[in-house]
Specification:
Two copies of one chain form a homodimer.
Chain A lengths: L32 H8 L3 H8 L7 H13 L6 H8 L4 E6 L5 H16 L3 E6 L4 H13 L3 E5 L5 H11 L2 E4 L10 E4 L1 H14 L4 E6 L5 H15 L5 E6 L4 H14 L3 E4 L2 H13 L9 E3 L16 E3 L2 H16 L8 E3 L2 E3 L12
Helix pairs in contact in A: 1-2, 1-3, 5-12, 6-7, 8-9, 10-11
The structure holds a DNA duplex (30 and 30 nucleotides).
Chain lengths: ~350, ~350
DNA sequence: AGGGCACAGGAAACCGGTTGCCACCAAGAT
DNA sequence: ATCTTGGTGGCAACCGGTTTCCTGTGCCCT
């Protein structure tokens, strides 16, 4: 036979790259629109129309094509579609820190909302790194149709410049005054005010604030609100203690708290509050008998601690959901609606009580 | 001029769709390789080569092209690249429930590991829905280069069939015997054994198990191990109580636990253990004085409860990291290495103590 | 001076879809 | 019997990149 000898290194022509070992059943590499069209004896255009449910294809032809597609278990390539359509059906979320319960819940809310609209979610973590965050945002945005940027650490002028390239964009926990970028944030000041009022009603006059990380914008909000609210009353004393955002930070600050003589502690967040409670307990102080403690966030555990924590609750999930709503509106070409500042809800539990009667 | 009148509805030809309002500076729509090539007076091929650092371009030309690209702030379209290269630099993660701390940590570990290798992460939640999970997995996989499937609820035969289409695939907390799919899982049996041994040393003889969700494979593992370990000792009694996976489930089961007369409670996970502790406390029982309680998972809060929880710790983050390692090996064409079963580490804290001396 | 060679860079095919435009066909109208 | 009309479905351009192949150039060597 002339078959032998005519093949130096097996370099035949077409070889539709079936990726090595022929497996049982359908070929390895996913079927393409071209192969389906060929198998069904129609043009690629027709297959495309059928797959997209275009009504301009005769019903019987459509059925046949569908049958062939089914048999080859063909699914249009999302990547190719994305290129052709100029849209990816994907949105991105960028957060500073995936370990933070706040962002975990935002992620969940966003993912679920996007999912019900047939969109996928790309997630990236900036690790609190400003330079990386900007790069990441641009990159992620180009892989998707829109972007949710949570608690961005990017300085305002830069963010303003960036916002054009990132649109459709929704900001979380960060505002950009005078811009059209929709922004969802938490009214930390309002939360602090509610806490302060609660504490004041309980008779507290000497307060200690366990501050969060220096770069945190939301910590700044809290401080400002705290000073403003507490300063209205001249008989009051406020001590600000550098602390942090973790349990251990709060724990370590307990001694300093005692040193201030405060009768109530306002912690940056729930974790810090737990740490503080734990530390105070070890120092022999009773909460709330000797000293009251408040948190912020209402993380899931806040109701299960001993004593349950008085805190300001913020609807983290809802933040994610609404971010999607805004983004969806933007993707639809419409306006995104006005900015929203979520009002924290004060949850009075058992970590706060009347100020001890001064001796 | 013959220019007028020859334009019925403004239908000129090219119209490079600059998307309406001309903004200041660079044009709205991102620059394309074609426009850069044109501006630089070279072919698209050359621009492509420059952007990819090909050494076959003369240095001065490369510099010029780079300058032009910079000026137009051109970035190659990831979508187009994905199509051309047949790879997306993205991997997907599918989890049953984003609210579960376990998966949150896996997500984080995976995201960080993938990030350092220049890959992005697509996340989807199956909501514990088997049918949806399969669809989601296929869809997600086609948008990315590989897939991590966590605690899949898909029945074995179906999963086996699916695994071909999903490769490169890494399974988390789920094994597929006899398959080549790498699998990372937790040796729940070993964890249970450690707990049992600890309890036995403390003199406990009557045990109550607060079982997890019925569909959970890891719950099955625990039950089996528990029966095996406890049955070796004829003087021991084991009561299995249907419960669930949440704090409230555990809380609700407290009364039933008391009914069994058990001196120690093995809870499905930490949350259930917390709930049980809380419920037992309300019923007037002291932990561990009257009854010991153990958890499973070592969620961050386990060390902060009152009393701190004795539990079996599993390296959730590490699971994510290693999932990436396996996936990366697979993407590289190599073998993924053998399956791993992580050994939980028993953390003895203060929720367990000697069995009360029987009356 | 001419042949050979290395190399830089352009033309065009390709990735896998979508879609505007047009040709073709059958049926209804005149 | 011819023109019109409407519905079907193919052709080919396009999305924005990458890569193979090939050509043209300049240099070196004899």
């Amino acid at each position: 036979m002339s078959l032998t000898g005519k093949r130096p290194t097996g370099s035949d022509r077409p070889v539709p790259r079936t990726s090595g070992r022929g497996r049982t059943g359908a070929d390895r590499a996913p079927a393409t629109i071209g192969r389906v069209a060929e198998a069904a004896g129609v043009s690629r255009a027709t297959v495309s129309r059928v797959m997209n449910g275009s009504p301009t294809v005769a019903p019987d032809l459509a059925a046949r094509v569908r049958a062939v597609a089914e048999a080859m278990d063909y699914q249009p390539s999302p990547v190719a579609r994305s290129l052709a359509l100029g849209r990816t059906s994907t949105v991105s979320l960028i957060v500073p820190d995936l370990a933070n319960p706040m962002f975990q819940d935002v992620l969940r809310g966003l993912s679920q909302a996007a999912g019900t609209y047939g969109h996928r979610l790309l997630v990236a973590e900036s690790n609190e790194n400003v330079a990386e965050e900007a790069i990441l945002a641009v990159e992620a945005r180009r892989r998707s149709d829109g972007l949710v940027l949570a608690s961005s650490r990017v300085p305002e002028p830069e963010l303003r410049a960036l916002s054009e390239r990132l649109a459709p964009l929704v900001l979380l926990n960060r505002e950009l005054p005078g811009s059209t970028v929709p922004s969802l944030s938490v009214d930390y000041a309002a939360g602090i005010n509610a806490i302060v009022e609660h504490l004041r009603e309980l008779g507290h006059r000497r307060l200690a604030y366990l501050a969060g990380p220096p770069a945190s914008a939301s910590d700044r909000d809290r401080r400002v609100a705290l000073r403003a609210a507490w300063a209205t009353d001249p008989g009051c004393q406020l001590s600000e203690l550098d602390c942090g955002s973790t349990f251990d930070d709060g724990h370590a600050a307990a001694r300093a708290v005692v040193g201030t003589g405060a009768t109530a502690v306002v912690a940056f967040n729930d974790m810090v509050a737990f740490g503080a409670m734990s530390g105070l307990h070890e120092l022999g102080l009773a909460v709330p008998g000797d000293i009251s403690v408040t948190g912020f966030d209402d993380i899931p555990f806040a109701r299960y601690t001993n004593p349950p924590l008085t805190t300001a609750s913020i609807p983290r999930n809802e933040l994610g959901r609404q971010a999607w709503d805004r983004l969806w509106a933007l993707l639809d070409g419409g306006p995104a609606g006005h900015n929203v500042r979520f009002q924290p809800r004060l949850l009075v539990r058992e970590s706060t009580g009347p100020a001890p009667t001064s001796d």
